Amino acid sequence: MSECFEMQKALSYGIKAEIEAKEFYKMWADNVDEEHYKKELMELSEWEKEHEKGLKDYYMELYNEEPAIDPDLVVAPELKVQTKDFQDSTSILRIAAAAYLSEMRASEFYTKLAKEAGGEAGIMFEKLAEMEKGHMDTTKKRYMKIREDVVGFHAF
Length: 156
Fold this sequence. Notes:
It is a single chain. Helix 1 (3-30) runs antiparallel to helix 3 and helix 3 runs antiparallel to helix 4. The protein has a single domain, classed as Ferritin, core subunit, four-helix bundle (Ferritin), CATH 1.20.1260.10. It is built from four helices and no strands. The chain is mainly α.
């Protein structure tokens, strides 16, 4: 990755992805009744908020300016859900699958950045990739629980 332009673009993209994920988990939390789901989803939203802050801070450190984030850029279209999507179990199952997929893509994105950036930046991206893997585990558990509720038994 050539230092200035591509890293700058990658960081902006990562920041936007974290914003989308943060908003997605908050919307999901706002649309569930079970307090333990709400708590878990708000925790995921807060983690994404921390990732966003870390990336913004790094961007400021490198470029001494606020990152320009394109509000029209859609990083993860599967996370663009409507409130009505939270109304039935099939939609909830699709949303849970989308969350897992999004976390997997984030982990892959940060793993790639870690390899290309190297040094301290590489270490930061490796940590983000590991955190996203943890989010993958959480979202997979959530998916499996919802699936069990929908089909009536634990299949795996």
